[in-house]
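Case study.
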Amino acid sequence: MIRFEPRASTPLVLLVIVPVLSALAALGSALLILALSGAPTARAAGLLVQGAAGSVFAITETLTRATPLILTGLAAAVAFRAKLWNIGAEGQLYAGALAATAVGTGIITLPPLLMIPLICIAGAAAGALALLGPVLLKAKLSVDEVVTTLLLNFIILLFVQMMLEGPMKDPMGMGWPQTSPIIDEGVLPRLVAQMRLHAGIVIALAASLFVHVLMTRTVAGYEMRAVGGNASAARFAGIPVSATLVKTALLSGALAGLAGVSEVAGLKGYLTSDLSPGFGYSGIVVAMLAALNPLAVVPAAIFVAGVFVGADTMSRTLGISNYFADLVVALALLCVLIGSLFTRYRLRLVRAA
Amino acid sequence: MMDAFDILLQANFWAAAIRIATPFIFGVLGALICERAGVLNLGIEGIFVAGALSGWLAVYLGAGLWTGIGVAALVGACLGLLHGCFTVILGLSQHVTGIGITLFATSASYFGYRVAFPTVTSPPRIEAFKPLNLDILSVIPVIGPALAQQTALTWVAFVCVALTGLVLYRTPLGLAIRAVGDNPASVDAQGLSVAGLRMGALAVGSALMAVGGAFLTMSAFNAFFFGMINGRGWVCIALTVFASWRPGKALLGALLFGAFDAYQVRLQTLAGGVVPSQIFLMMPFILSIIALILVARKADYPRALMRPFIKGER
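After joint prediction, the assembly is written out as follows.
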């Protein structure tokens, strides 16, 4: 019989190996499914790797795709650390993108050094605001935040569509439901000539560092972790649990909002209702792959981004649906959940007496 | 011109309300059974998708309609058991597992659809369930003709409500299921298997969810579309709280929800394009949040909901 024994501390090697093996296991099982569906698997796997990392273009594309995933991954990691189940990063991302376009399409014109921070602040504030309602309902009325944040995703996306067909519709847009472009002063600069990689990645990396320092070196971060560890113990120790939850929510929502800013001001240039192909949900997978560690979110996001970018190449060449990427990402979440057992517990074979 | 109040007296309106409510009846019953046993099943959204695809695909490939429903139920049960392996056997987070099951079931369904139909642009169709046209019922005013127009699956949903109520409140099995969601240690002390009961509840509950999905592709429509579930599963989770985990109230909640949804579609035509259509599309989600807030103060969650039970640990 196998017995689980809780570990007092986890060796660093395991902390690195387990997520890597989980990711590989997910890729492997997805390729197995691909083989069963009759596709040339070896060629598909080759194209996947080549498309994700085979050239300078591929690498910059992967990093571009990783940018919003780092931010939504951080949003999930921060919230889940405090056991605040924010499943609404998708909606908060759109709220951030909407605020960024509202401010950034010509109402105000400032030099880039002021304009870009202004757009970022607007987007982060909108994202934070989008999560404020659910967290207040949780703190005051104990309404489950999982359901409210999930439902808000749909409400916010519909609201964005309404704005795109109504007051914020681009008069020069040939009738397409899209906003006017972000003014030049507000566009995030490109980092590599001829490539789409933009300064959003710098914002994302800085955010990862900021969250890491906040969580490990400040009182606020300690309180967030304490509330997530054991809320009643935290309350007994004099930590204001509700206030901490609200603070966590504001940070988490702001990070997801920034993901929207980065996509709209760095990549697309204007807002459409298909800005995000599920970055909010993939962010949860990123956070779990990173074991909720803000620094580990970066490599986890790059892996997930690589799968998406690589699958695009694979899908174009072999005609395999790029829902394959979603399948890999979903399997990665399930695999890393099982993997988490090995970091938290020691497995021991016990002989039946 | 049609008046906003007159709508309520039309049989067609109530027929639509019941049709809209049917997948929610299945979904809320499924969620309720899982949660009564102490497991929050956030896989519901994906299980709806998987049920919608698998049932429909079985019929498309030549199976009978009821075989298709059986296939959907089986796929749902398997996903429920997968959820259980993570949450019941291994005691992992129910939130994250549920999201994982939803992502997996959705992406696997979409991928599977594309493997089966690589290039089609207009979705292939099947011969769906037909209205039963029970003319005897038409003697009852308004509601009678509305019920007469429903397909057999809606009646299956009604029967499931009665059965769930009967089993939960009138049988030893039901007592054990309710107890395992409130106080698993006491069930364990009785010599019953906590894991067995929870796995069983997950299998049956998830099968019902999948049938709810299959209703959409096999009765409400006759084809499978990407994104057709569109949050229905999440609404079910909210309605379950609103129904305070009771089958009778679940039926009532789903019907009320269906009526609101059917009503707003008719108001939309009445409003004649003055109000943006998105406002109306938002209504189901806003209503669900309002329903949650209304019952928040007195919501009586199963006490062991989301608590894994590991024998010998407290």
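Observations recorded in class. The first helix of chain A runs from residue 12 to 36. Chain A touches chain B at residues 33, 37, 80, 85, 87, 137, 141-144, 146-148, 150-155, 158-159, 161-162, 165-166, 281, 284-285, 288, 319, 321, 323-324, 326-327, 329-331, 333-334, 337-338, 340-341 (CB under 8 Å). We will return to this complex in the next lecture.
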